[in-house]
Design goal:
The complex is a heterotrimer of chains A (508), B (307) and C (358). By secondary structure, chain A is an alpha/beta fold. Chain A folds into three domains: 3-237, Rossmann fold (3-Layer(aba) Sandwich), CATH 3.40.50.300; 247-339 and 426-508, Rossmann fold, CATH 3.40.50; 348-424, no CATH class. Chain A has helices spanning 43-50, 73-79, 97-101, 116-130, 145-158, 175-190, 202-205, 230-237, 299-306, 330-335, 357-361, 368-371, 379-392, 409-421, 439-455, 466-472, 494-501, and strands at residues 3-14, 17-28, 32-36, 58-63, 66-68, 82-85, 108-109, 113-114, 163-167, 194-199, 210-215, 218-224, 258-266, 279-284, 288-292, 314-319, 322-323, 340-342, 427-431, 458-463, 475-480, 483-487. In chain A, a hairpin with a 2-residue loop joins strand 4 (58-63) and strand 5. The longest helix of chain A has 17 residues, at 439-455. Chain A is globular. Chain B is mainly α and 307 residues long. Chain B has a domain at 22-218. In chain B, helix 1 (2-33) runs parallel beside helix 6 and helix 10 (225-235) runs parallel beside helix 13. Chain B is globular and about 65 Å long. Chain C has a domain at 64-303. Chain C is globular and about 70 Å long. Classes of the chains: A alpha/beta (508), B mainly alpha (307), C mainly alpha (358). Chains in contact: A-B, A-C, B-C.
């Protein structure tokens, strides 16, 4: 088997962080090669180097045995026939499917008019080749994320990509769709193409022909599938042996006091997939209640209602027994310290990047009187508070006056976690707390959450990451198409949950 | 009969004057679709006015005047393009600077050269058969040739934007410059061309205002038309035909207002501000559903996708 | 140690880039002067003499600095809140109108009270006018760049309407009002010049705004909303309320600029009460990085240019528009200042990187 793509000695650093540390890596023709590693190991960086998005500090790339100069993505696509499907859609939302696929090579009639017939024809051909049923004229923003990924794959086929990169494609797909994806990939392999499949999930890696493991920027293992086992992979991925055990098994059947009670919550017109159809659940003191599910099934509505951003159509919200449905505004919730909230999207909505860290840490109207007694700033208190929190949560920074934008993703998340966990409240709502974080930081966050639960807080965890939910929650529920289904401890295993996440009923 | 002639005059002057709003609006539409906001359109227009006026007076050729006015607008827009596209500066502030620059330059040149000739306008150019239609004929089809050219331009631009690949790129650069770059196109180039076209068309509009309608130059003569053009783009939902309608509508208000002054006792300051007021009302109404707005309008693009 | 060095480099970079931008302005401006047939040295000399040469000239510089400072302060507040208020000019006009009405038609009031009433009126009217645009934004999500921009024209015409139809005495030729009562006149603070107390009020306002933004919870809320509206909302801040308040303050301060012109400079209301002060302030506050204290210095600088320009116009016969062009060049080239500052900083770190520094 010949080598399609080879990277030798790739080095890439950002300031002091070495994301890729002399990486040697190769993919053969007709091979499905998994690039495995936990968050922050350097997988995306390597892909970006190979795709021409980033320039490596050192190293050489060979395509089909010949030295390659990939200076831009255009080079990668046009000269070296490399295609990439990333987690974030590369598509133009207002364009049609056809326009997106043929964007790089728009067919013309009479020299400048767009040949729509040809576009339709091409899309039809690709549709048949991949098995994805897509209409050339549909506007992309009306499609689901999974369908958008299909378009990206069709685009790759159109561009005749020989070497295909997939960057964590399953993060937005249901397990069944992932299976379909693998079928397509295996078909592409048979036709002689090469696929690099980036993932942090062991099961997916084990579905590939060869596996390379990255840890902290270095390659720790490259083996054929038959030479490895789950344990070997885990050892290569993590320094210590990790067992992802579920807390559920350890739960004692205590009678706990309820902090948050959601009763018969209905949002929207009930027509959209993400609208809540009749959701009820309880979060008790001293426990973590985890809601797992694929994005877009109602998590956003739950979060928006509980944080006062969305008026429910019907239903009641009770906090410590008191019905607060009528006074659900962000102001009311915060001024009485009824809850603390760690939102998804640390850069976009979770923090104020322009402002110093101290200003971020004191956010929360409920404690304004502490930092601005009588409306006037108490600088000393703010400084002290900030320094303490920075130390307690291990936020790596020059000081409280540094802008939040200077923090790395992990440190920014720690800052936000510190900010919210330091609020004197009984209810904590947490969404996607460890998305994109390296293992150490993720562990840290989980530990803190469990600590707070043990101190007596009630925590609502909403996450797309099944492992996280299973690891940290005392009770688990699955949300699907706006309906919530709580699981008993017996039911908590990966297979059951996966099926519930896509709406397949569990036969008792 | 007086009423008839009044309405007739209003309609005729509406169409004639609308071109001075239509051209910059078409230009700004193209530019905004690619992601560049030109608050300085007023500046492009007024340098177009002074340049066209001077060249017309000195050469006697109205088309030369229009051409030079157009180019003047293009040059000013090139400055805006360099600052906003290559240097990625704040487009709102740059636009204000460009506007003040255009205003200052045009006034300065005017004072320096001190020309006050009244020039000859375009002669009316009746379209043979159509002009015979009662009322509408003389009102719509007895315009000057430039009006017809401009209306044809609407059609041409509309076709280009919706049916050619250039139109697709223009929209893609404003909606998703990253995808456009990944598809192998040069976002900066697309934006440069779009911005310069805006400058050219706006300069042409200002030129037409000076030599085609008002027959002279006076300081500040564009009188906010550039800003109204920006509003028309929003009214028109970034669609050339709706923009044409918007231009006619505002031109109508302007012409109508002149008559209201004569017929009624409504003081003219209140009438003059009508277009602006109306614009705010419509913009407010439309803002509740801005589906068509180019997603990355006024956000500078950094190659490789970082923002 | 690392922090200190970094801080020092930043200051050097900011000042250096400012000077570089100024240099570019002067190069282009000199070119313009030369091809128009004037002597650049004479022009610059004239500018400086006109701005600072005599106490009278200095007074005039301060006079022009006042409204620019007022407007800049207002813009600092609204920009820091994330609201692109470019309607200062119109707010100034309406503030002038309100101040004029109070100043002309309220006889028998002691001096200090009269001035305070006029200030209150102009602040209120300017503030409400800006607040309206703020309301359109919070309620309808109407883009404030457009609404405030257009509100300028509307305000200018409204002001003219009232001037011509209500305030103008029948015997006046140019549109202007009756003179204001002497009890409303701002006192001269520099003997022998025309410099009125408005500048003092403006500088005091600068400190008030600085205090508000840095030391009060309102200032904190404004900065937070400006940094990230949604995060601010999550933390419980009433975002709409803060936006309205910041717009009100912004328009109010611009209104005070109008008050200063009526009560201190002209002593009546005229049609062209402002030579684009409101727009110049946009550039000024940008250069001052939205800092109220910095705005004091930048406004002085702008005032000096405007005053110097008037001097060269009158004494040397150079058309006024040349100064307008100079101001426009400033607006444009100052946009480069942050980029140049960044380039200086990165150049420093690549060439003079010390070991052990991150």
């Amino acid at each position: 088997m010949s080598t399609a793509l080879q990277a030798v000695g790739i080095v890439k650093s950002y300031d002091s962080l070495v994301a890729n540390d002399r990486i040697d890596f190769d993919v053969r023709k007709g091979e499905l090669h998994a690039l495995l590693g936990e968050n922050g190991a350097g997988k995306s960086t390597l892909l970006n180097v190979l795709y021409g998005v980033l320039k490596p500090d050192a190293g050489t790339i060979y395509v089909n045995g010949k030295k390659a100069r990939i200076t831009s993505t255009r080079d990668a696509i046009l000269k070296y026939k490399i295609g990439k499907v990333s987690q974030y859609s590369d598509l133009v939302p207002s364009f049609t499917v056809g326009e997106n696929i043929l964007y790089g090579d728009i067919p013309n009639k009479y020299g400048f008019f767009i040949d729509r017939a040809k576009i339709k024809q091409t899309v039809g051909e690709l549709s048949r080749a991949t098995g994805f049923k897509l209409n050339a004229e549909t506007i992309v923003e009306d499609l689901s994320v999974g369908e958008q990924q299909h378009i990206e794959l069709m685009k790759l086929l159109y561009q005749d990509a020989e070497i295909i990169f997939l960057d964590e494609p399953s993060s937005l797909l249901a397990p069944q769709e992932v299976k379909k994806l693998f079928v397509l990939l295996k078909d592409l392999i048979r036709k002689g193409r090469s696929v690099i499949f980036v993932t942090h999930k062991l099961e997916e890696a084990l579905d590939c022909d060869r596996i390379t493991v990255l840890r902290a920027g270095r390659v720790t293992l490259t083996e054929e599938r038959k030479e490895v086992s789950k344990d070997i992979l885990l050892k290569a991925m993590f320094e210590e042996k990790i067992t992802v055990a579920s807390r559920c098994a350890r739960q004692e059947d205590k009678k706990r006091e309820s902090i948050l009670e959601v009763q018969n919550l209905i949002t929207g017109e009930g027509t959209r997939r993400g609208n809540l159809k009749n959701v009820s659940f309880t979060v008790n003191r001293g426990e973590i209640f985890g809601i797992a599910g694929i994005a877009g099934n109602g998590q956003k509505d739950i979060l928006d209602v509980l944080t006062g951003f969305l008026q429910p159509k019907d239903g009641n919200i009770l906090l410590k027994g008191k019905d607060i449905t009528a006074s659900l505004s962000p102001y009311q919730l915060r001024i009485n310290n009824l809850l603390a909230y760690i939102p998804e999207g640390r850069r976009t909505v979770g923090s104020c990047l322009k402002l110093p860290i101290s200003e971020n840490l004191i956010m929360g109207v409920g404690r304004m009187s502490r930092f601005y007694p009588n409306g006037l700033r108490d600088t000393r208190e703010i400084k002290r508070f900030s320094r303490d929190l920075i130390e307690e949560y291990g936020v790596k920074t020059a000081g409280p006056n540094a802008k939040a934008s200077s923090l790395s993703g992990g440190n920014l998340q720690k800052m936000i976690v510190g900010r919210e966990l330091s609020i004197e409240t009984d209810l904590l709502i947490v969404a996607q707390p460890t998305y994109g974080l390296d293992f150490k930081t993720a562990e840290f966050v989980h530990k803190r959450l469990i600590e707070k639960a043990e101190e007596g807080k009630g925590i609502l965890l909403i996450s797309k990451d099944l492992d996280e939910v299973m690891k940290v929650s005392d009770r688990i529920a699955i949300i699907y198409e706006g309906e919530l289904r709580e699981l008993s401890c017996r039911e908590v295993d990966l297979d059951t949950i996966s099926r519930l996440m896509v709406g397949l009923e569990q036969d008792c | 009969m007086v009423l008839y002639s009044a309405i007739f005059t209003i309609v005729t002057s509406t169409v004639t004057s609308a071109i001075a709003l239509l051209l910059p609006a078409l230009g700004e539409n193209i530019s905004e679709r690619s992601g560049i906001l030109n608050i300085g359109v007023e500046g492009y227009m007024i340098v177009g006015s002074i340049t066209s006026y001077l060249f017309y007076v000195s050469s006697g050729n109205i088309w030369l005047g229009l051409l030079m006015g157009m180019l003047a607008g293009g040059v000013l827009s090139l400055i805006h393009a360099v600052f906003c596209i290559t240097l990625k500066c704040n487009q709102v502030i740059c636009g204000i600077g460009i506007w003040l620059l255009g205003l200052g330059l045009s006034g300065y040149i005017f004072r320096l050269l001190d020309v006050t000739t009244i020039t000859e306008k375009f002669p009316p150019c009746p379209i043979p058969l159509l002009v015979k239609i009662p009322f509408f004929g003389p009102a719509f089809f007895n315009q000057n040739i430039f009006v017809y050219v401009s209306l044809a331009l609407v059609l041409i631009i509309s076709i280009i934007l919706s049916k050619t690949s250039w139109g697709l790129l223009n929209r893609g650069a404003g909606d998703s410059p990253f995808s456009t770059e990944m598809a192998g196109h040069n976002v900066f180039f697309i934006r440069y061309i779009s911005t310069i076209i805006c400058g050219l068309l706006s300069g042409l509009g200002g030129a037409y205002l000076a030599v085609g309608i008002l027959s002279r130059f006076s300081e500040g003569m564009t009188n906010g038309r550039g800003f109204i053009a920006i509003c028309i783009v929003i009214f028109g939902g970034w669609n050339p035909w709706k923009i044409l309608f918007g231009a006619l509508f505002f031109s109508f208000i302007d012409s109508f207002q002149l008559y209201l002054q004569v017929w009624t006792k409504i003081p003219y300051p209140l009438l003059i501000m009508l277009p602006y007021l109306l614009t705010i009302i419509v913009v407010t109404y439309i803002s509740r559903r801005s589906k068509n707005i180019p997603r990355k309008l006024a956000i500078p693009y950094i190659r490789g996708g970082a923002e | 140690m690392k922090n200190d060095a970094k801080g020092q480099i930043e200051v050097v970079a900011q000042i250096g880039s400012f000077m570089l931008s100024m240099l570019m302005v002067f190069i282009v401006f000199s070119f313009l002067i030369v091809i128009s047939g004037f002597n650049p040295v004479a022009v610059y000399q004239g500018l400086i003499v006109g701005a600072l040469g005599t106490p009278g000239a200095l007074g005039q510089t301060f006079i022009r600095m006042g409204p620019i400072l007022f407007c800049s302060l207002g813009l600092a507040v609204s920009f820091r809140c994330g609201m692109w208020n470019i309607g200062s000019e119109g707010q100034l006009f309406l503030g002038a109108l309100a101040a004029a009405v109070v100043a002309i038609y309220l006889p028998g009031v002691p001096k200090v009270i009269h001035i305070i009433l006029a200030m209150a009126a102009s602040f209120l009217v300017g503030g409400i006018w800006a607040g309206l645009c703020g309301f359109l934004k919070t309620r309808f999500n109407a883009n404030e760049v457009i609404t405030t921009l257009l509100s300028n024209f509307i305000a200018i015409w409204i002001s003219f309407y009232f001037l011509k139809y209500y305030l103008q005495p029948k015997w006046a030729f140019n549109p202007s009002s009756l003179p204001i009562l002497s009890s409303a006149e701002l006192p001269i603070i520099l003997k022998g010049t025309l410099l009125h107390g408005g500048i003092l009020i403006a500088v005091i306002c600068a400190f008030i705004v600085w205090f508000m933004m840095k030391k009060t919870s309102l200032g904190y809320s404004i900065d937070t909303v400006g940094a990230n509206k949604i995060a601010a909302k999550y933390s419980g801040i009433k975002v709409n309320r803060i936006i309205l308040i910041s717009m009100f303050i912004s328009g109010g301060l611009a209104g005070l600029a109008g008050m200063g012109e009526v009560l201190g400079v002209h002593h009546l209301l005229i049609r062209n009460i402002s030579p684009h002060y409101g727009f110049i302030a946009i550039a000024a506050v940008f250069i001052a990085r939205l800092n109220p204290i910095g705005a004091i210095f930048v406004s002085f600088f702008m005032g000096a240019i405007l005053n110097g320009g008037r001097h060269i116009q009158i004494i040397m016969g150079i058309p006024t528009h040349l100064v307008d062009i100079l101001v426009a060049l400033f607006v444009i080239f100052m946009l480069l200042q942050p980029l140049l500052a960044k380039k200086i900083i990165t150049a420093w770190f690549t060439n003079f990187r010390k070991t052990g520094e991150d």
